[in-house]
Structures are given as structure tokens and as C-alpha cells.
Amino acid sequence: MKKALTLIMLLLLAFAVLTSCGSSEKPSDKEGTQTEAPEENKEFVPEIIPGSQINPRQFVIDYMYKMAQIKWTPSKDIDFTQGENEIAKNLYYTKGVEYQGVIYVTGSRTMTNYEKFVAQLNENGEYIGPITKKEAWGSHCSSAIRLAYDKIEKGLTFDYTAEMVPSTKNGTIIVGDYKVEDSFKTTDEIIEANNATTMYEAYTKLQPGDCILTCWGPTGHARMVVELKIEKSGAGKVNPSRSGVYCIEQTNSFDKDRKDGVKTTWYDRHFYSFADLYEAKYIPLTIKTLTETEFPDTEFTVKSFNSPETLTSGKLKGIVRSTYAKITSVTVDVQDKDGNVVATKEYENTNNDPLVFQFNNQAAPEGMDTLANGSYSCYITANTLYGSAKIAKVDFTVGE
């Protein structure tokens, strides 16, 4: 009897323990997970442009190709074969025929970059600007390089090849280690003052975006390097006949080596050996910006931009500043509460200082003054040579 009572007591105790360990709450479908309410009103974090993203060498090459590959047709025949200027005597652009690349000129408008040339084309891609040698919009070999370099460096003052010789101090600097006297006005003098070994070694120091120059007096030729090729002997000596550079260049004749039917004065990836360069008196050059190897992150500040109350006034104000990358334009986007862009406009930077952009009561994006009632966000994006960054946000409401 005692054994039976003891057994009953043990069973009752076990049942009590089991029931006390249970729970009336429904277990989670996924053990260890928690559901949080979505975070509202997230703080806006301005974007930057990382220094690792900045590549001025690739930029100047890309810009040369941008000028070289623009497609257009003459609205009238353009005849440079007649007259005093012998440099462009082989050029005749035929009405209605498609060409690629900014026109080759040596007149008064040689500093015509991509943007200026596009402005001379109508909606059909026809060139409608002046067609005489003196007044046509275009570029030549050295001015084209200068136009690309201008995008990344201020203060360059060369146009023609004679102004690129380092002794003229117009912004070019030597690549490598060769002798240049202040009295030297031609590359002939420079080559004569340095032996072949010295110049071959200097050529090996060229990098994409650098340039090569020959100048024998008032004229000459310049090319931008896009790729370097070096071949050495078993003893490690540079083979000047097999080593060389591939270039992009604006020239005074149509490229007869093209196999794709493109009519252009821009020679693309023609190869020139070191031996050829030395014989033709070419010297390797660059500019200061291209000697830099590390670049800082670019940060932006926005001052005195419109308040939420004045955003729909129709006029914008404020100043955008960059710490390094040049600001080419600023974009203003307006998004509704669902993230849809309901108004947008890009504003070109015309400030003399490219690190500063200023709104001077420019018209706001079309449609901002007629927005439906609701909540909106206005975003400011800084566009630079090396990318874009969303740098400011202003939340505002309409009709509430």
C-alpha cells in the first residue's frame, strides 16, 4: 500500500512540474527572430566622391574620344583646299555626307571643345556654323589636347605646337629625365641636346593621357597617348623598333587607314615606335595634374538653399562647394512620398571657380509651382568630372 501511495505521489509531482514549464503564448514561427517597426524619417547622409574613383588620365582620353566620335553632316560644302592656309589644304567636307569628329581648323576658332561644336549643329546633326578657314568652329592637333586638359587643370595657355615646348612655360612639363634649356624653342634642339638612349628611356615613362610633341618652328604636331607598348631584349634592353605608343590625335587629313568607312580627321590608335618618334624629333610631355597619383575624397557643402517654405516660389538660391572635384553641373530633383520624380532640372556650372556652383534665382524645375497637395522631398545632386553625388535633401509639403 505504501508503495502504491508513493507511486501516485511521484506521478502527481511530475504532472505539476510539466504544467508549470508550459506557456500560454504561441511560439514564434522562426525562433530567435524579432520584427521591428520600420524606421521613419531616416536622417539624410550626403554622398561623397571617393578619391579612388578619380582618374584624370582616363577622363582626358575619354574626352578626346568624345570630340573624335561626334557624328555630323555639313549643311553646305566646306572647302579648305583653296586659299593661303596650306596646313588644311587636303580637307573638303561634302554636304550631306556623315563625318565623325570636330572639324580640323587653324583659324580664329581653334579652341572649340565638344560642347561648343555641338552648339553649331541643328536638330538633324547638321553643321550650320561658319564654313571659311578663318571662321569655322573646330580644333587642331595641339588645341584638341589642350581642350581635354582644360577640363582637369586651370591655367594652361598653349594653343599651337610652338607654345607646347616646355621652355615656353605654358603648362606642359617633361616626362622622364632629359635636358631642356630655356633657350630651346623647337624639339629639334631638345633632341640634339640628348642622346637616343636618354630619349628612349623618357619614352618608357609615358602613361595614358600624356602627350608627345614635335615642333620644328612655327608649326609641328602633337598626339595624346592612349597605350604604351614596351618590348625588351633578353638582356633587358628596350627595343626601340618594337616598343612604342598608340595615340588619339586630331590631324589635317582624313584617315585613309580606316576600314569601317568612317570619314574622320581623327586618327585612332595609330602606332608609333620609339625609333620613329626619335627620328621625327618627338618629346614626351604631360601636365601637373597627371603627375598626381593619389586623390582626396570629394565632399560637398550646401549653403543658403531654399527653405521648405520657399521651394515652390519658382526661384532657387544657394551655394554648392566642392573640396576637390570640379562641379560641372547641379541637378535638382523633386520626388513625391512614393519616390517618383515629379520635377527635375540640371543647371550647368558657369562659375569661374569650378569648385563653386551658385544658384542666382534660376527658375526652379518646371512643375514645382503646380504640385498637387502632399509631401515631397527636394534632392540636390552635384555632377563632376568623376561622377555624381546626392548632397542635400529638403522635405516640404504642399497644401497642408
% residues in beta strands: 25-35%
* Oligomeric nature of the chains: single chain
Largest sheet: 6 strands, antiparallel
Helix content: 10-25%
Shape: globular
Rg (CA only): 33 Å
Overall number of strands: 18
Head-to-tail CA distance between termini: 85 Å
Give the tally of structural domains: 2
Residue runs with pLDDT of under 50 for 5 or more positions:
1-41
The averaged pLDDT comes out at: 89
The succession of helices and strands, N to C, reads HHEEEEHEHEHHEEEEHEEEEEEEE
Structural class, from helix and strand content?
A: alpha+beta
- The number of helical segments is 7
Strand order of the largest sheet: 6-11-7-8-9-10
Outline:
By secondary structure, this protein is α+β, with helices and mostly antiparallel strands. 17% of the residues lie in helices and 27% in strands.
Describe this structure in words.
With 400 residues, this protein is of the alpha+beta class. The chain folds into 2 domains: 56-291, no CATH class; 298-398, Immunoglobulin-like, CATH 2.60.40.4070. The protein is built from 7 helices and 18 strands. A hairpin with a 4-residue loop joins strand 14 (327-336) and strand 15. The longest helix is centred in the N-terminal third of the chain and has 20 residues, at 2-21. It is globular. The protein starts with a helix and ends with a strand.
